[in-house]
Design a protein that fits this description.
The protein has 272 residues and is of the alpha+beta class. It has 14 helices and seven strands. The chain has two domains: 188 residues, no CATH class; 44 residues, no CATH class. InterPro entries: DUF169.
């Protein structure tokens, strides 16, 4: 159940921020139905995501979307011709020439469309009857690794990571997971690091809602293989406290400590 997956996610991941749910809203009636902060002044999408990671609930439309890149990426407006032909991206100084800029632009333009507004809030404010389109976790590399391991457990190795170092939150962590229906990682970008002031050691992973349950299941089922005893105890306590079934913890071993033991035993036997 979706609500249980959310509880599991917080228990399994050692992250300081709220996990963020994002919903792309297609009409004004639905947009108006959400009783959350409705922006008056424009705000960048990535700043809204950071605000949600701190517990706030925000919605915005085209008029209050404060970043041209995310306004375009989230489908609130169509890409302009000078974006699609590479002219505008090239002027930013991020590409060798207009041809490279154009190829990059075509990867990020026209991805999503017909979005009326965007709802951004901690994932626990959504429900089984009203799920987000994408879930974003922001944290340190070690915990993002756990999310990727969770995906790999059930789905195998992903060969669809799409990363450019640009448009980290709006494209890499939001649009790409939706358009490709797969997990995607972002090391964030210069713009969001300036605007949202993320910590130097933070990154993001975006998960389409269609894969959220499988990813959490994978993290859950790899706890014994990868977590040290301290984390195993913390996870067990958190799951039990929330009346969520907890696996039998195998203390004193992980796959990598067992591997080291086997190597030491092998070297010991070879000496004799």
């Amino acid at each position: 159940m979706f609500e249980n997956d959310i509880i599991k996610a917080y228990a399994l991941l050692n992250i300081e921020r709220k996990i963020v749910g994002v919903k792309l809203i297609k009409n004004k009636q639905e947009f108006d139905s959400y009783d959350v902060v409705n922006l008056i002044n424009p705000l960048s999408y990535c700043v809204a995501v950071k605000s949600a990671s701190l517990g706030h609930r925000i919605k915005f439309d085209k008029l209050t979307s404060g970043c041209g890149g995310s306004t375009r990426a989230l489908g609130l407006e169509k890409p302009a011709d000078d974006f699609l032909d590479g002219t505008a991206p090239y002027r930013l100084g991020l590409f060798k020439d207009e041809n490279v800029a154009k190829r990059a632009a075509l990867e990020t333009g026209n991805i999503l469309s017909n979005t009326y507004g965007v709802l951004v809030q901690p994932v626990e404010f959504f429900s089984s009857n009203d799920k987000p389109d994408v879930v974003i976790a922001i944290g340190k590399p070690r915990e993002l690794m756990r999310i990727i391991q969770g995906y790999t457990y059930n789905k195998g190795i992903s060969k669809q990571f799409s990363m450019s170092g640009n448009q980290g939150v709006c494209v890499e962590a939001t649009a790409y997971p939706l358009i490709h229906n797969t997990i995607n990682m972002s090391l964030l970008c210069s713009g969001t690091r300036f605007l949202a002031e993320w910590a130097e050691d933070e990154g993001a992973v975006g998960i389409p809602i269609s894969l959220f349950s499988e990813v959490i299941d994978g993290i859950y089922n790899t706890v014994n293989a990868v977590e040290m005893d301290k984390r195993k105890s913390e996870i067990s306590e958190e799951l039990t406290l929330n009346n969520i079934e907890c696996m039998e913890m195998e203390y004193g071993k992980t796959y990598y400590t067992e591997y080291e033991k086997e190597k030491r035993e092998k070297r010991k036997n070879e000496k004799h």
